[in-house]
Amino acid sequence: MTSGGGTLNNIVLFDGECNFCDRSVHFIIKRDKKALYKFASIQSSAGQNIIKKYGVPTNVDSLVVVETERFYLKSTAALKICKNLDGVWKLFYSLLIVPRPLRDFIYEFIARNRYKWFGKKDKCMVPSAEIRKRFL
Q1: PANTHER family, alphabetically (predicted)?
Q2: What is the value of pTM for the model shown?
Q3: pLDDT (tens digit, 9 = 90+) per residue, 23-76?
Q4: How far is CA 22 from CA 1, 18, 49, 95, 98, in A?
Q5: Are strands 38-41 and 11-14 parallel, antiparallel or unpaired?
Q6: Which end of the chain lies in a sparser environment, N or C, as judged by fewer CB atoms within 10 Å?
Q7: DSSP 8-state code for residue 14
Q8: Nearest residue to 25 via CA among 57, 59, 54, 65
Q9: Facing residues of 73 across strands?
C-alpha cells in the first residue's frame, strides 16, 4: 500500500467471520514465501476503504483480490492468487481458461455452504508478529 491514497497491489480481502476463509488466508500465507500478499477482512475499516476505492460492490460475498488497480472476485480471485503461490498451486492458474460462469458456479456452491460446513468465528485470530505485518 502506498501513502497518500496511492495504488494497492496484491491485497486479499476475505470474510473475517468465516472459518474456511480464515484457513484459506493461512493457506496462502504458508505458500506465499515472497510475502507478496497483504490481507484485510472485508468487515474491517481497511477492507471497507479498499472496497470504496476500487468500486467493489458493497454487498460482495466473495474473496476479493486487488492487483494493479483492478479487483477480481470469486474464482478469478482465487486463481489469481494461485499464480503467485509456491509449489504445484501455480498450475491452478491455468484453470482461468475454464469459462468463468462454470468456475463461479463451483465457487458459489462452496461459498453458500461455507458457514454450514466450516462454521463462523466468534472472535478474530491473533496472528504472530511476523504474520501481523501482512494485515492492513
Answers
A1: DUF393 DOMAIN-CONTAINING PROTEIN, THIOL-DISULFIDE OXIDOREDUCTASE DCC
A2: 0.85
A3: 999 999 999 999 999 999 999 999 999 999 999 998 888 899 999 889 999 999
A4: 22, 6, 20, 23, 26
A5: parallel
A6: N
A7: E
A8: 65
A9: 64
Task: Read off the amino acid at residue 135.
Answer: F
Using CA atoms of 73, 11, 15, 57 in order, give the dihedral in degrees to the nearest 10. -50
- Please give the Cα distance from 20 to 17 (Å, whole number): 9
Quick one: residue 41, left, alpha or beta (phi over 0 = left, psi -120 to 50 = alpha)?
A: beta
> What does the chain come to in residues?
136
Nearest residue to 131 via CA among 29, 45, 20, 40? 29
CA dist 71 to 53, 66, 80, 125, Å?
Answer: 10, 4, 10, 25
C-alpha–C-alpha distance, residues 74 and 101, integer Å: 10
Tell me the H-state helices in the chain.
19-31, 45-54, 74-83, 100-118, 129-132
